[in-house]
Each structure stands twice: as structure tokens, then as C-alpha cells.
Design goal:
The protein is of the alpha+beta class and 123 residues long. It contains three helices and eight strands.
Length: 123
């Protein structure tokens, strides 16, 4: 987050405010099974991908780059700027019908939760 604050010239609080006050449209899912790609970030939130991608981005990580946001549905390499993590199961491969929690055409509004709430989802 510190790197992103410098890139955007915004405080952590302003980054969070901009992100949580935005309704996102899911344009597509893919690249990694069920990974939703959202748009469109406001202009002052747009940052380039990392010059060197991370080897491991944890499952549930929420990333931003350019005008887009996404959620990593599995641990994988990635070069997006990570701003948070969701405890929700965004893709469930055990479900033959509707394995995606989020589908193209859906709208999503992210919600900030406490660490205690996050832990409850993971129990």
C-alpha cells in the first residue's frame, strides 16, 4: 500500500475511500478460473502494473491496475497492485453449476470489514 500511495500521490485513507465508494462492473471472468475483471477506476486511482510481477499473490487478493480491478481466485503470480483481500469464495470448482460468485454483467461494491469479520468468513 505504501508503494501505491507514492505512485498515486494519495493517502491510504483516500485510496480506500475512492475504492469503497465505487460500484464496479464485471466485464469478464478468466485468465485464472473465475477471476473477475472490473472497471472502471476513477482517473486518480489508475496505476501501472508492477515492473516485476510477484511470484505468489494470495487467493482472494484484490488488485488494481490501469482502469481495472480484479480478485485473484487462486494463489498465482501477478503484477497488479494489491490493495486488500476478500474472505469470500469467489470461485468454487466443486460446484458444477454456477461455480462463479461473480459473473460478467454483475455489479459489485466492495465493503471494508474488520479483521474479526474476515476471520469469521474463514472458519
Amino acid at each position: 500500500m505504501e508503494r501505491l500511495e507514492k505512485k498515486l500521490s494519495l493517502t491510504r485513507e483516500k485510496i480506500q475511500e475512492n475504492f469503497f465508494n465505487k460500484e464496479f462492473f464485471c466485464y469478464m471472468t478468466g485468465f485464472i478460473a473465475g477471476m473477475p475483471f472490473f472497471g472502471d477506476l476513477v482517473e486518480n486511482m489508475r496505476a501501472q502494473r508492477l515492473e516485476t510481477p510477484r511470484v505468489k499473490v494470495p487467493k482472494g487478493s484484490i488488485g488494481i491496475t490501469e482502469q481495472f480491478s480484479n480478485i485473484y481466485t487462486f494463489e498465482s503470480p501477478g503484477g497488479w497492485n494489491i490493495i486488500g483481500n476478500t474472505p469470500l469464495e469467489v470461485f468454487d470448482s466443486s460446484k458444477e453449476k454456477d461455480p462463479n460468485l461473480i459473473n460478467p454483467g454483475d455489479t459489485v461494491k466492495f465493503k471494508q470489514i474488520t479483521l474479526e469479520e474476515y476471520k469469521i468468513y474463514n472458519e
